[in-house]
Every structure is written in structure tokens, then in C-alpha cells.
Amino acid sequence: MKQYRVGIIGATGMVGQRFALLLENHPWFQVTALAASARSAGKTYGELMESRWLLKDGPCPENLKGLMVYDATADLEKVAGMVDFVFCAVDMPKDQVRALEDAYALAECPVVSSNSAHRWTPDVPMIVPELNAQHAGVIPAQRKRLGTRRGFVTVKSNCSLQNYVPALFPFPGVQDVLVCTYQAISGAGKTFETWPEMIDNVIPYIGGEEEKSEKEPGKIYGWVEDGVIKSASLPNFTAQCIRVPVTDGHFSAVFVRFAEGMKPSKEHMISVWESFEGESQKLNLPSAPKQFLNYFPEDNMPQVKLCRDIEHGMAVSIGRLREDTQYDYKFVCLSHNTLLGAAGGSVLTAELLCAQNYI
Which active-site residues does the annotation give? Predict the structure, then answer.
């Protein structure tokens, strides 16, 4: 397989750090450029991370410590010339993120973004590799709009969608979905050290999260037509999103109603989950989980501590499937929000785009 030179834009934040760890020994991707805000530029990554490293599951990669960190905006042309594509995880206002990602694309540098800024640009695919890999087919239309030969932008969906949408996606006839998400503090880029107010606490509001949780599934369920992605009108989603005192791992309680005559049996649903394979499994991509959807029959499973790291944090855990008195079924889901839901999912998306020859 071809080796790719990769940049991380927003390398100093929590998701940027997660990219650094994931790419440390990647078989296809070698990090050759790091960029962040102007205040971080001009220092080595090792200098910056000495007091800023937030991840508990691994130290700052030795092979990145000596790399100079560039200004993501002022040094854009230089960074774009050092890489084959970039991952983007900057913490900026959405209009500035859109402008920055477009600028890299216009510099003929493909962008695989974990940010939300471009999720509703009609010709920007929002890819979950196991579900809608075919949405990459809109990239030629985006390149035509931008006037680029290589450059384009692709994005990840909201991190909490990564567990309940995959659990529903294999089934035809899903009509109404009510979901309550219980989201870890790392989703806000925080640890208990930096956010002590979250210890022994629950906050019943996460800004913008419910709107994303209700709207974004339509784009994932949608299709490519006339150079844009058309959003599906069904299923209907309604959501309530809650911040809970957990380090990593977003949890969801899901209630689903099927169209008349389309309700599957409980046994069929479990069988579908256990046998599910997406495009990333068929292509045997390096970061793809062998078993994407994992069902637990025990009443007290899945649990965040026990299950968030299954398949290196790239799998979905499902449990407590049972009939409901108002909906057809209810069940719970769990996924690792900074791995499958953010950096890991972006790395897998980049692998897919390389395998499809878009990068």
C-alpha cells in the first residue's frame, strides 16, 4: 500500500492529541506536519505537550516531539506542501473553521475533518465508513465547485450518533426514533482535572447537541443526486442530550418504531447486528474493527468502563433489547466518543478514501 504524508491541524487539542496517538504507528500514514493556533506556532510539539498532554492511555509520541508546530492559517501553503492530506480538529468558531478547511482544499490539500462546520455543505460527504461509504461519490462534484484537482473536504458526523445510528441503519422501515444520550466530558475536550464541576454532577444540556442528533442522521441516510447529498426524510429523530461524569464513552438509550408490517423479530435484530459488515470490513482497512456491532445479552451490559475500548475503541456495543409499551423496541448503545466518534473515525474515513483513490 502507498505511504501517505499526513498533517494534523489543531494538533494541540484533545482530539488532535488523539490523532497523534493513533497515527504513531499507522501502517499507511506518517505525520510530517503539525499545525495549531498562532500562539502555539514556532515551538516543538514536545515543548507544547509537556504541560498540555491530556490523554491517560498513552504519552505524547516520541516521533512527534521534535516536529515544529506551524500556524494553521499563516503557514497554510507551507503545511499543504508538506503533506498528501490533513486531519482537521481545530477549536475555532464555525465560520472560521469553514474558511480554513476550504483554504486547505483550495491549496489542493484534501481535508478529513472531525469538526462540524461543513456538515451541512451539500457537496461535503459526512461519512461513517460502515454505513455510507458511497457518499464519497459526491467528491468530484465538490472539486468541480471548488475548481480543484485534488483538494476537497469530508467530515465526520456528531460523536454521539456513532453508536445509535449504526445500530438502526441495517434495518428497513425504521420510522420514529427517540434517543437520550449520556455523554462523556471528553466530548467537551475536558478532563476531571480541568472540569472539577463535573465530579458527582449531571448537566441536562449540551449546546447544539440535540439539534445535531436529530438532523444529522438524515444526511447519513441520504443519497447522492445532482452533485449534492440529499437528506432522507425518514427516520424521524428526537433527542435529549445529557452530560454525565464519565471520562470517555457516549451512552444512548434508544426507542424505535418501525413502519406498519416492518417490525423485525428480536432474534432477527440480534442476528443482523452480529453478522453486520460494512465497507471498511470488506476492504480490511487498518483501523476497521473486525466486529463493528457487538450485542451483549446480559441485563447489566454494556458498561462504559468494560466496553468503550472494544476493538481499540472502534466498535459499537449494544444491549438490553426488549419490546416497549409505546414504541416497538428499546435498547442501549455505547461507543468511544474520541476514537470511533472523532479521531479514530476520521482515520478510518481517510483509509477508506485512500482505498477508493480519492486521496
Answer: 159, 250
Provide block-wise average pLDDT over 10 residues at a time, the chain (359 residues). 94 95 97 96 96 92 97 97 97 94 98 96 97 98 98 95 97 98 95 96 96 97 98 98 98 98 98 98 98 98 98 98 98 97 96 97
Determine the straight-line distance between the first and last CA of the chain, rounded to whole angstroms. 13
b/e for 244-281, b at 16 or more Cβ within 10 A?
A: bebbbbbbbbbbbbbeeeebbeeeebbeebeebebbbb
**What CATH number should be reported for the domain holding residue 187?**
3.30.360.10
Residues 85 and 147 in one domain: yes
Cell of 73: 492559517
Do 109 and 185 fall within a single domain?
Answer: no
pTM value is 0.96
Same domain, 120 and 35: yes
Q: Same structural domain for residues 13 and 41?
A: yes
* In a shared domain, residues 132 and 260: no
| Residues in a beta bridge with 332 | 253, 319
Provide the phi-psi class of 82: left if phi over 0, else alpha when psi is between -120 and 50, else beta: alpha
CA 281 – CA 283 distance, rounded (Å): 5
How many folded domains does the chain comprise?
2
